[in-house]
Amino acid sequence: MDLSRRISIRCIALLAAWVVFCPVLCAQSPACTSQKNGCVATLIATLKTKSKSLESSASLHRDFDVFLANHKLATGSVSYSDFVLIHLVFEATRDAGLWNMHWSVTDKPPNSDEIWRQWKRITRPSYSEKTATAECDELSALFAFFVERAGVKSVGLFWPYSNHTVAVWTVRPANSPEIRVVVPTSQIFLTENDTFDTHGFDPWHQKTIYEYTRKDVPDSFEIPQPLFAFFLSQIDKYGGASTETLQQLRNLRGAVFEQRLTPDQAAKEALRRSTAYASSEEDRAAFRHFAEDLSSTSEH
Hints:
single chain; three-stranded antiparallel β-sheet
């Protein structure tokens, strides 16, 4: 069976829900004019709904406890819901993340416009191939766009160097000083172990982090149905996994994009690493899904 159809079948339940509520979500705009495609409004609504369902994840609860401890924050001082949504969007939009983005020098403006143009052309997504190529500022803008549209504020772009961009989430905890959380949407100038809330860059180096509020595309922007299905399938399979597990899978996915590993080699390595890094059922499932998906691409 062709890969795009396999992806579509795996997320048939999510797509059925999309068909039902997309016209309602887009009633105030010409969104979702084609029943063959998905619109930005629906994708954002799905991210919000999925993040709420992930709040029961044992892995994410542990990650949040670590986050609070690292910043010496009291329980309840930071929104757990905001943390889960930001975690999900980060893992989806980062270099070699769930939506198969890949970093490269593009010399494009610091927004996500070109990413959306590339996505418009993807009709046969593959687990082992990138969906779009983008530079660090484009990836960071895409992350910030989704987070802001999903209702979480205080996310903007940060330039640790004149030639590099990441995102920063500014958190204002109750009864605690403001903190800045670095969101590295690529691994440039970082090690393969650096991930969400890395200390590899000092976010206070930049005096002001301006919230990214640019509307890169309208709610009515349509994403080809096979790619839309792929996005939903990926967040459904991996959204509840821990930061550590998703970092391991990100590194393997990146190695496939850069042809340092074949899909089959990456699948076998994922199974090997699952015994070392999987600490919950969500983590074990993530490694298993990755191995199955990458192995399937070797069969075609």
